[in-house]
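User: Thanks for the earlier help. One more: Zn(2)-C6 fungal-type domain-containing protein. Can you show the sequence and predicted structure together?

Assistant: Of course, both are below.
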Amino acid sequence: MPAPPHVAGLLNYESPPKRLVPPRRRAQAIKAACEACRKRKIKCTGERPSCHPCEKQGHKCIYTTAPMQTHLQALRHQNDVFAREKSLYEDLYRLFMTLPSADAIEMLHRLRSGAGVESIVLHVGDGDAVSSF
């Protein structure tokens, strides 16, 4: 059975010719803008050490992220660093509260002389005497 006349014309419809001009490429998205571009809320080119807008305006170009790192990734990394430091200082406090007074004073002297908190906590936390390091 043939198609009705109002539908037959649609079946023979030809699509328009394909575009001969290639589509425009989108600009490559950068991971994180520099602080000057973020503050001015403008498009940053992401070049390091200085992006194009900062070079053009003569601004100091400062990035608070590592290359190929987003601001969220940088914040998460910084949060991890702070969490580790907090844990170390909690361990140090626990040692001061539980060690005998003489050992706690020796540990304080070592801290004041420049010994790192991590090295003291790890050394004393392993059960070694404070005076042995």
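User: Great, one quick takeaway?

Assistant: The radius of gyration is 32 Å.
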